[in-house]
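To fix ideas, we quote verbatim a fold written out as tokens:
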Amino acid sequence: MFADPQFLMSCALFLPVLWGLGLFGFPSRAVSAIRWYALAGACCELAITVQLSGVALGWIDASPAVNASTTSLRNDILLGMSLPWIPTWNVNYSLGVDGFSLPLILLTSLIFVLSIVASWSIKTQIRGFLFLLLLLETGVMGVFLALDFFLFFVMWEVMLLPMYFLIGLWGGPRREYAAIKFFLYTLAGGVCLLMAMLMVYSASGGSFDLLELARMAQGQVPKSGMDLDQGIALSAAMGDTSLQWRVFVLLLIAFLIKLPAVPLHTWLPDAHVEAPTPVSMILAGILLKLGGYGFLRIAIPICPLGFAEWAWFMVALGVFCVLYGALAALAQSDFKRLVAYSSVSHMGYVLMGLGAFRFQELTGAVLNPDFSTMGLSAATFQMVAHGIVSAGMFFVVGVLYDRVKHRDLRQFGGIASLQPHFSAIAAGIFFAGLGLPGLCGFIGEAFSIFSVWHVDRFFSVGGALGMILTAGYILWALQRVYLGPTYTGPNREYLTEINFREYTVGYILLAFAIGLGVYPATALNVIEPASRQLVQQISGSQERQLSLNRASIESPLDK
């Protein structure tokens, strides 16, 4: 049973919230027990996702029955399961993992463990805070595991309320404003996602199966037991260019809000500044990745023709986000707001890699498909790397804020002489965010730029310029905070070395930043097969559509 992927996927989905319910069995005064109980649950979740990864990658043997049941799945789906949920409307409890979702699932379980360790600084309503964290983890896992559009949407919306309350109840002085702004932006994205889902559901004849929808969008007849003529008609409806264009625009808006991309990013700095440190770690480390993952799981596979029309826009917007986020970070005097804008810049590289497609006009084939595969792989790797780096940067800022109760860069300075050990950890994490070769931040950014070169060299140069600006604000922040002449702010007496708990979080994040930078193949070997499969699907859809267009033009002449 414990090597059964169906059992492991269901455990990974529901264990956090079920474990979180156990928190209410503790008296509210048992603060230490509540914290250790929540941490134990997050560690169990991490162990389950590690075991699930071992089964998916073949390191742990699964039962023959399970292996046989996965043979009908798409080649890039490592593991999957499907059970009826609402049969009347063809809604299924469908879960699966592939090269895109598996690294993000592992990242999620790791960041939640570290965030709960960092939550020792929370002093009020601890039980409610930790329960909302565990509920949020269930929502995130559901998005990364879902292979049913309806289930994906439900889990997407489940994340909304925990984050709203985590910011609104435990945030800073303007927490209500930040929480409402986050709620409204995310809700608007959810409405766009819902409209796109309804359009796809109607055109497909009532299917929420993401794998089936992708096959139909690419012109293939559904595998379900329907009449052949009906299947061909539905496949033609899903392959309609106009429909895919409209659906892709709705999905583009929904996922750009979550990414976030300019000009839909304004909720992010406010949410980060007001959120407590553990929530900022989760928000930057995990929740921003849901936008990029949405493109990989839904928007691009089920709307390849719409994507072909908007790929150039994604690259252009990605470059703009890189430059805008870096310039905005340079203009900040609030340490946390600087890190928040750095996320806007770094996630721009994700958008660049996702859109790194160029189509040949006559045949529809992807020019230089290896570069397009590189772009998708680089975008996914960048999401993982940014998850490590951004969580570490917000943790560093949070450690300083817990001691001196301010984030004003103008009052910092000389921290390296007061906290030399912690300053070394912070420097390593910030250099990873800078994109220094040998650290994880370099790989995704560099190869996103390389992949865009065959789309438009101007955009590639723009992305490279963003790396220079990134070095500017990172080095400026390190100089002002750690190497300045002296600290001039309040509470200087509290600037002591960090404790064992803080060392643990810092060193784990730094170790992953170094490990993924030195040997990125650990993740890329998992990601690349899924990227290559998706590139082939997009190219095939384009070729099919162009052949249909030529046939429609030639047929009247034949008559």
